[in-house]
Amino acid sequence: MKKVTVLFFFGLMLSVSVQVVGQANVSSFTLPKVEQPTFKADTVKITSFGAAKGGLVLNTVAINKAIEACSSSGGGVVLVPKGMWLTGPITLKSNVNLHLQAGAVLQFSSNFDDYPLVMSYFEGWETIRCQSPISAKKQENVAITGSGIIDGAGQAWRPVKKSKLTSEQWKTLVSSGGILSTDKSTWYPSEKSLLGQNTTIQGYIKGGSMQEYEKIKDYLRPNMVSLVECRNVLLEGVTFQNSPAWNLHPLMCENLTINKVNVRNPWYAQNGDGVDIESCKNGVVTNSTFDVGDDGICIKSGKDEEGRKRGMPTENFRIENCVVYHGHGGFVIGSEMSGGVRNIIVKKCTFLGTDIGLRFKTTRGRGGVVENILVDGINMTNIPAEAINFSMYYMGKSPIAEPEDEGKTQTTVKEVGANPVADESTPQFKNFTIRNVSCKGAQQAIYLEGLPEMSIKGISFDGITIEAQKGIICIEAEDISFSNVTIKAAKGVPMEMVNARGIKTSKVELLSSSLIKVSVAGAATKSINLSGVKGAEGASVKIGDGVSQSEIVKK
C-alpha cells in the first residue's frame, strides 16, 4: 500500500443552545458536537486491484477488494481516479474514505442481476429489497468524499407515469422495452416490476419467502446509499444522482455529517427523495443542493408499530445553508415518524419551486411525537401548493394533483370522531418555532390541520411574509401564535379557523380584497384573540354557528 499525503478538512460542529417558544410553553435544547470521522493518510487506488475505466468492465470485485484491504490494514483512503468506472454493489467498511477525484464517475450497473435480494429497509419497514448500490452496516468512521459523481442507474429501475413526460419522451420510453400498466398510464421496466406494483402492500409480502420476493425482484428498487447503524459518517463534496429509489438513506446512525453535496434526480423520479435521515442521532446537513423527484431533505423515524417498537427518534440535527430546487417538499418531517423526532434546527435555506416549502406530515396509526423544532431564515419562490403545511391526514399522494388523480382528494377521509380517543398510534406535532420566513408565490400561505382527537399544539409563527393565492387555514390546532405576520392573499378569506383553540396574534396584517378578513367556525373553537390583527373588527370577522361570541377577542 503506497503512502501519500492527503489533506481533508472537516469543520467542527460546536454545541448550540436554542430555545423553542410555543404559545403555552418554552422548551430549550442543546445540540451536541458532532464527532467527525478521521482517516489515515494511506491511500490505495482501485486500479491496484484490477479496476479498469471506460464503462465496459464491471469493477465490483476490484473496488470491494480495495475497500476490504484498506479497512483490514487499519484504514485510509480508497481512491477512485478520474474516468468512468462501471460497478455493481459496493460495501463500505470501517475507517475507509471512498474518495472520488474530480472527473471520476462511479456508474452503477443497470443489470438487475447484479443486485441480489437482501434484508433491508424501505419506507420505515424492515423488508427484503435488492442490495443498495452503496451500503454499510455497523461500521465506524466511513466517508464518501471528493468531487466526482455517483450515478445509481435509476432510469433502469423506476416506473414512469405517462403524465410526467411529453408525447415524444413517452414514445421513446415505451419503444425502449418494458411493459405498460393495464390502463396504459404507467411504464414499468419489466413484468416483475409490474407484478410488484400489484401486491397488497406494494413490494411487501407479509411472511413471504425469498422465492416469493424473487417473483417481484425488479420492483424492489434499492435506496442508492444505505448506511445502517453506522457511527461517524461523512458525505462531502460528491454529486449523488439518479437513484433507483431514495438517494441517501442513513438509518440508525450516530454522528452524521453531510456537507457540500449535490443530490440530483429527474423531477419525475418516483420515490426519488434527496436525503432521508431516519432514526439517527446527532448530525448536520450543510451547504448542499437538492434537485429531486420527491422530498428534498426529509427526517423520519420508522413506520407505525414497527417504528414505535424500534423507539429510536431522529434527534439533534442542524440543517443549514441548503438549497432545494425541486421536490415534493423542501424540508420535510414524516410521514414515517413513529419513533419520534426532536431537537431539529433548520436555518438559512432556500426552496425554489418545491411543491411545498416546509412540510410536516403524518397520519393516524403512526404514533410518535415530533417536538422542539426551530425553523429560522427560509426564503421560497414559486411554491405550487402550501408554503408551510402541517397535515395529520397524509395518505402518500403528491401534493400536486396529477391528471390520473383528478377528482380524488389529497387527504384521507376526515371522519370526525373516527378515533375519538387518542392512543399510542396517535401522532403528535408540538412545540415548533417558525420565524423569518419569506415566500413570493404559493397556492396557500399556511395550512395546519390536526386530528379531532389530537390537535397540533404550540406553534409559534414570527416574522412571516407570504404572497399566495390563499391565506391561512387553521383546523384542529391549539396554542398557535402569529406575530409580525403579513399575508397577501389573492382570493378568499385570508385567515380561516375551524375548531381552533388558544390563538394569539400580534402585528398581523392580512392583505386581501375580501371584506371578511377572519373566519372562525367549529363548536370546539375557544379563546381566539384577534386583537393583533389589523382591521379585524366588526363585519370583517365572520363567526360561524356554534361559536360563542365570548370566545373571540377583536380589536
Overview of the molecule:
With 555 residues, this protein is mainly β. The longest helix has 13 residues, at 60-72. The protein is globular. Residues 1-14 and 401-418 have low confidence and may be disordered. The relative contact order is 0.08. It is built from 5 helices and 42 strands. Helices cover 7% and strands 45% of the residues. The strands form 4 sheets. The protein has a 35-stranded parallel β-sheet that branches.
Notable features of this structure?
single chain; 555 residues; mainly beta; 3-stranded antiparallel β-sheet; disordered N terminus
Please tell me the overall pLDDT. 91
Given the structure, what is the number of helices? Answer: 5
Any idea what the radius of gyration is? Answer: 24 Å
Q: How does the helix and strand content classify structurally?
A: mainly beta
Poorly predicted tracts of residues: 1-14, 401-418
Write the layout of secondary structure elements.
Elements: E1 16-21, E2 26-31, E3 43-45, H1 60-72, E4 76-80, E5 83-87, E6 90-91, E7 96-100, E8 104-108, E9 117-122, E10 125-130, E11 134-137, E12 140-146, E13 149-151, E14 160-161, H2 167-175, E15 179-180, E16 186-188, H3 191-197, H4 210-214, E17 225-228, E18 231-236, E19 239-241, E20 248-251, E21 254-259, E22 262-264, E23 275-278, E24 281-286, E25 289-291, E26 297-300, H5 304-310, E27 314-320, E28 323-326, E29 329-333, E30 341-352, E31 356-361, E32 369-391, E33 428-449, E34 456-468, E35 470-475, E36 477-489, E37 495-498, E38 501-511, E39 518-521, E40 526-529, E41 541-543, E42 552-553
Parallel strand pairs: 3-4, 4-7, 5-8, 6-11, 7-12, 8-13, 11-17, 12-18, 13-19, 17-20, 18-21, 19-22, 20-23, 21-24, 22-25, 23-26, 24-27, 25-28, 26-29, 27-30, 28-30, 29-31, 30-32, 31-32, 32-33, 33-34, 33-35, 34-36, 35-37, 36-38, 37-39, 38-40, 39-41, 40-42
Antiparallel strand pairs: 1-2, 9-10, 14-16, 15-16
